[in-house]
Design brief:
Helices cover about 30% and strands about 25% of the residues. It is of the alpha/beta class.
């Protein structure tokens, strides 16, 4: 009997403390947030939860500390049906933490502390069992040497590789050559191609597609997916030279988890042998729903929720999401009032 493909995601595991602001503070300014909450997070965790919510077998590759936060995050991941076989522990550092400033409907700024995430090694990823048809995902926040080791093994075993270009940085040519699909958001594309934030803010979709295509070393056999926030996705498919666009309406609440939601669902859809067009449409809808929730990992929709959105032209007024989880495992409620643009800060 053939082995069912799975999704393998290597990346950070952490708690996100999110502060919801109306604007970013100036230098030396003390600003009171409208509300805040603590949520399971980290790009690896978020993407794995999104993939598992799709319904594909999903394994996370990463490191936690040996603290109470690690126990609670492992419990949470098990509840989300994420495989933990390749999640190691280290006594050398605490479990990851990140502090996120979420501003309005548009962007968030994350500050990650040094943690157990920094102790993932090439030996760790070489232990991962990879089969033909699997989809293996990594992000550029992981060391390039580790990603190369993971992707080399993936390609040798007949798996497809997905690289999330976040954060923006120069990559070794070898890593780019080992990547089948590059996923990048609009801001990071601007930094990579133009050297500065928001240089592409006024670019047309075709101009953005042209810039994204420059990330491909082998355009005839590689794809790139550009995540445009509330403007959806653009995919440039190398084999067919097509530009595919997908956009889904949403009532924006928190954009923190949107990118990771798209990537997790894209990986799951490809492992599920969907075409790029179908995978892109489904992932865009999933990302739109994630923008309506709070937090990152806690905002990932189930497959049936995405299907229902695609089958309906109506945009929901609100979405029920789980409460944030405090590091001691006790559910908490974000404090303060929701952001209100009419209220001065």
């Amino acid at each position: 009997m053939p082995i069912k493909p799975k999704v393998i995601i290597a990346g950070a595991i952490s708690y996100d403390h999110i502060f919801y602001l109306q604007r970013l503070p100036w230098t030396d300014e003390i600003m009171k947030a409208n509300k805040d909450g603590v949520f399971p997070g980290g790009k690896g965790l978020n993407q794995a939860v999104a993939s598992a919510a799709y319904g594909m077998p999903t394994y996370l590759v990463g490191k936690t500390g040996e603290d109470a936060e690690a126990l609670n995050l492992r419990k949470y991941l098990k509840e989300q049906a994420v495989g933990l076989k390749y999640v190691g522990k280290t006594p050398m550092a605490p479990t990851g933490k990140a502090f996120v400033q979420s501003v309005g409907d548009h962007h968030s700024v994350t500050m990650a502390a040094n943690s157990a995430n920094d102790h993932l090694t090439k030996e760790d990823v070489r232990e991962v069992q990879i089969n033909p048809g699997d989809v293996v995902v990594g992000q550029t926040e992981i060391s390039s040497d580790i990603l190369i080791a993971l992707f080399e093994k993936s390609k040798a075993r007949g798996a497809k590789t997905v690289l999330n270009f976040a954060p923006a940085k120069k990559l070794p040519t070898k890593l780019q050559a080992l990547t089948d699909i590059i996923v990048v958001n609009e801001r990071n594309l601007s930094i990579i191609v133009k050297g500065t934030d928001f240089a592409l803010a006024e670019a047309t979709p075709n101009e953005l597609a042209g810039c994204a295509r420059t990330l491909l070393l082998h355009p005839e056999k590689q794809d790139v997916v550009l995540i445009r926030g509330e403007h959806g996705l653009i995919a440039i498919t190398g084999q067919r030279g097509l530009i595919l666009k997908s956009e889904v309406d949403a009532n924006n609440v928190d954009v923190t988890g949107m990118e990771d939601c798209v990537i997790g669902n894209l990986a799951a859809s490809i492992a599920d042998e969907k075409s790029m067009r179908v995978a892109l449409t489904f992932s865009a809808a999933a990302g739109a729903i994630a923008r309506e929730g709070q937090g990152a990992g806690t905002a990932m929709p189930k497959q049936n929720e995405v299907v229902n959105r695609l089958n309906s032209s109506a945009k929901p007024a609100s979405r029920s999401v789980p409460p944030p989880v405090r590091p001691n495992g006790v559910p908490g409620i974000p404090r303060g009032n929701p952001p209100d643009s009419s209220t001065p800060t």
